[in-house]
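WARN  no MSA supplied for this record, continuing single-sequence
INFO  ligand: iron/sulfur cluster
INFO  echoing inputs
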Amino acid sequence: MTTTEPRITSPSGTETDLVEMNWDPITRIVGSLGIYTKIDFNAKRVAECYSTSSIFRGYSIFMKGKDPRDAHFITSRICGICGDNHATCSVYNQNMAYGVRPPALGEWIINLGEAAEYMFDHNIFQENLVGVDFCEKMVAETNPGVLERANATEAPHAADHGYRTIGDIMRSLNPLEGEFYREALQVSRTTREMFCLMEGRHVHPSTLYPGGVGTVATVQLFTDYLTRLMRYVEFMKRVVPMHDDLFDFFYEALPGYEEVGRRRVLLGCWGSFNDPVACNFTYREMADWGRKMFVTPGVVVDGNLVTTSLVDINLGIRILLGHSYYEDWEDQEMFVTHDELGNPVDRRHPWNQHTIPKPAKRDFDGAYSWCMAPRWFDGTDYLPLDTGGGPIARLWSTALAGLVDIGYVQATGHSVKINLPRTVSRPEVTFEWKIPADKEGKPLSNAIERDRARTYFQAYSAACALHFVEQALAEIRAGRTRTWEPFTVPNDAFSVGFTEAVRGVLSHHMVIRDGKIANYHPYPPTPWNGSVRDSYGTPGPYEDAVQNTPIFEENPPERFKGIDIMRAVRSFDPCLPCGVHMYLGGGRVVKTAHSPTGVTLAI
Amino acid sequence: MTQAVDEQVLHILWMNGGLSCDGDSVALTAATQPSIEEIALGALPGLPKVAVHWPLIDFECGPEQGADNFIEWWRRADRGELDPFVLVVEGSIPNEAIKPEGYWCGFGRDPETGQPVTTSEWLDRLAPKATAILAVGTCATYGGIHAMAGNPTGAMGVPDYLGWDWTSKAGLPIVCVPGCPIHPDNLSETILYLLYQVAGQAPMIPLDEALRPRWLFEATVHQGCDRAGYYEEGDFAAEYGSAKCLVKLGCWGPVVKCNVPKRGWINGVGGCPNVGGICIACTMPGFPDKFMPFMDEPPGARVSTAASGMYGTVIRTLRGFTQRTADKEPTWRVKGTELRTGYQKTW
Ligand code: SF4
Ligand code: SF4
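INFO  complex generated
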């Protein structure tokens, strides 16, 4: 730090200097995110955080007037790592609009494709992007003492994963040179082969259609998938205990690490993997078939499950403008005043949203972002839900609901059990993901637990896929090989699709008029997680989670890397189609807590 | 992946700050012929030493005034301190000139003004200094999805922005590898070719009129499709899920230049029509507008399927006609202060 004169009072009441630190773009995420912070180096805390991403493409605008059957081809291009989640969500949405129910086999094929996507994407993100923050090279540069201790700490599950010490695990995660880093990169390719077997092409699938899939379903298709899947199952038997050892070590080596990236438990999950036996894609029965999904939809507040109904979830969604570059749509027409069940639909609901861009300079007192602020209205408050990067919300909601029981996975009401069968060199294994709590027993949503859940969810997806392969083969053996059902596009309709993108909640809302798209608004996870301060001044989840993150890094400001902040941000699996930057404002000390910047995250 | 600078190193600056989905970055992680590890670690004979500055997996992650700041490499390139470097551009270039203020997309920020540095500004600054520019994916090459009719940003491809006859200081035209997303190995193989060329070990990369590497894009989807036997027999699928030719369900294969059905998507697995997906022409300059609605039978194909097998020459001529249209971008993807996409400005 170059200067020490201006003093301000920190939340703890002590005199302190705040240093601006900006990262813009942040690397090792998908897309472009900037994180602008003020750091209190004396108290070793982040005092303030704003996140920004600077891109606007205008999907909701250029989709207007297009053929509704083009929607999944177009919306897939919203995201280059989970485009297929968009295509899937759009196909679900179109199925509702066209009143078509695909043959069960088509649905099992989509589930298998989507399971492969989770297995691929969580794996590459965890090991090749997040893992680098925990690798030997990084820890040596940020916390040399911790590395020394890691080298001297025997890994409790060494027998399961083969690394004798925690330091050995860290070395195996070194980028490119690390043996596990390279193995995981290779696994991300075989899982993508599995994906391509089902959906044709990664990441924008070629075989998904409203009414089902074009994939030619033969015995060979499922054999090719299953053999690769079993190799992945074997791989996960090493990976789960390895990450447990690594993450547990951080709590031990750095007491208080629970607080890094911690925020109130406000989790949303929109459900994943439809059960074709139950799902008929009607809005009227959506709450029922939603509860039959193999990942249960839900909203979890302070550790309690508020709802599992997709209808409640749908009606609670609100889009606030916050500090973004758009005109309001209060004076514009409403497309949908009541849903099919007669419930009133709010003007700020995606069905009624109008996207009216108004480009302007970045001004932190005014508009500073291309991202609006999605919130979930519980009847009283506009809750800034996050997805925790996806897995933590999915496992939490599924665990509490206790509805899933397919043998390979079982939700117990307080945990999720994952039962993996025997593989080539390892016996049957059961992993149990338990709802995380801190030392006082309070529910815990923080960086480490978001990351840990990711690994468990990889195993969960593999276990579900085993079930789906069995179901698909049963269809084929019974001679039911059709994968697609014809449909016609109505002149007027409105519809919604829900699923889980890899990093969390995904919804697509559509209004059709005169056979064309009149309104289409997709809401992926990152606008929820990376949202700006909303019209009520409530910060978005990244901002919230980074603020008050304690700093454990040993480097002074001149050599500061901000590793704890980066771990907090990456735990959400940010995915902002554009690049990420973080910036340390010249070691300049600022006087007041004046907000520097915001999130830009527009589709 | 960043290594210490030394004179022998060839830098690759990867800018994913255009209007994109990052799908081409993600595709590169899927490549195996060669893989990114093999390129970065110099695991092929004769490869120059490279330093890849790639946001997706870069080790660098420090803040602007702390250690290991990623954007600093861009600033160094701008100051002329990195030479030689190959600039990879992912995403289409929005037209920042159609509005009085603000930005459509930025990459890093200007320390003086605090405002984002726009992607087009980076292109203006770095293009004169780059040894080669590689446009990856259909957005960066020709505009793609974000440049479709009715778009508000006036997006276009890199050649539309810099000029189709632009050449680098080393005399290279813009190299375009289209695909939505790009085929993983088509990308890594083109990078490899350029590295050999810059190292003086390969002659000028052979490109066609749309600046595509010839050997990757000279055949049509249809010529490489394993369903062509059905086409030749006039046996067409009436429903998705059938193993027969998909042309009546919307496959544009006969007029589209792309090697995906032949090469497979990853390690020979997947593809489009061979797996059961219609070809939506995602590699073509006319994508997507000239091929929508995707699920309708292509008008050009109607004539040719009716006559399939019988009038080879006539069909090839007809196809040639459709192909020339398909190989042209729509007229609105141009520079200037006017927005020609059909969107009524609200600002
Ligand atoms: S499916 Fe498409 S590419 Fe294949 S034979 Fe038919 S028209 Fe040609
Ligand atoms: S076959 Fe068609 S849709 Fe598939 S990648 Fe090639 S051009 Fe794109």
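Chain B touches chain A through 96 residues (CB under 8 Å).
INFO  checksum written, moving to next record
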